[in-house]
Prior knowledge:
Rossmann fold, elongated
Amino acid sequence: MKRFQSILVYAGTAHRDSAVTRAAQLALENKASLTLIDVVKPMPTVLGLMTDVAKPEEIETLVAADRRRRLMEIASEISDIGLPIDVVVAVGDAATEITRQVLEAGHDLFVKNADSFSPTGRLFGSVGTSLLRICPCPVLLLKPEIHGEFDQVVAAIDVEACDGKHLDLNRKILDFAYSIAQQDKATLHIVAAWRLWMEDSMLHHAGADKVESMRREHASRVQKSLDELLQAPFSKADDVKVHLRQGSPAAVVRDVADEVEADLLVMGTVCRTGVAGLLIGNTAETVVSDINCSLLALKPDGFVSPVALSGSVSSKEDEPLPLI
C-alpha cells in the first residue's frame, strides 16, 4: 500500500504494540515519515485546588515530559526501520489534539488500536468514534487481538451513489481496500446494499405487482452501476468477491463482515445527509457499533475538519455535519 508520506500513530494506549508495529511496517513500505503521539488529559480543576505540591499546569508539564520519554524509548526500539521518527505529546482532548496534529503536520494516515471490548460490547470507544467524525485523513483503527497481516478485507461501497463526490469516495474505498488486500495477500470482499425507496409505503398504495416491477428495474440499474464501477483490476481478479444484496446497508455490511470473518472493513464516513446511500447518519453509527474487526475509515475529498488550528472549534456554516 504505497500511498502515504507521513503516518501518525497513537502510542498512548495499554495495547500500543500492534498499532506501532503496523504503523512502522506501513512507514517502511511507503518510505514515509512516522510520528508517535500521546495526549495527556488536562488535570481536573477540582484536583488542582486540592494540591499544594504544584500548580495544575506544572503537573501537566511533568506528566507530558514523562510521556515524551516513553515515546522516545518506543521510537528507539523501532529505529532500525531507517526512516524519520518524531514524537509529539499534547495536553487536551485526545481526538481534538490528534486531529490538530494531523492538520498542522499534514499527516495522511492515522493509526490507533481500537479499544478493548467495553461492557456495552463496542470495539470503538469515544476517541476512535470522534476521530471518525473530525479527523480529515484516513483513520485506521486496529482490533487489538489482530496481529500480522489481514486475511479477509471487506470494502463497503454506496452502489446507489449518483453524485460525483460519492462516486469518487467509492473509487477511493476500492483503491485503498485493493491495495491492502494485495499487500497482505488477502481476499477482497466488495459489499454493496440496495433497497427500493419507500417500498413499504408504495406497496400499500401501488400494489405488489407494481412494486415488484419497480424493484426489478431498480435492481437492474444497481447492477449496471456496480458493473461500471468494478472494471479492471476488480473484474478479472480471482481473489475479489462481490456481495450485492437487497436490504439495509448497515445490516448487509454487518452480515457480510460476519460471514467472511473479516479482519478489516474499509468504508467511507460521509458526513452530510441528503443523498440516499451507505454509511450516512445513523447507518454509519450502526455499522461502527456492530462490527468486530479492524476499520479503515476514509473521508470524501474536500472534507473540512471542524477542528481549528488555533485551538478553537470552527463554526462555519459549511462545516461537515456530525457522523450521527
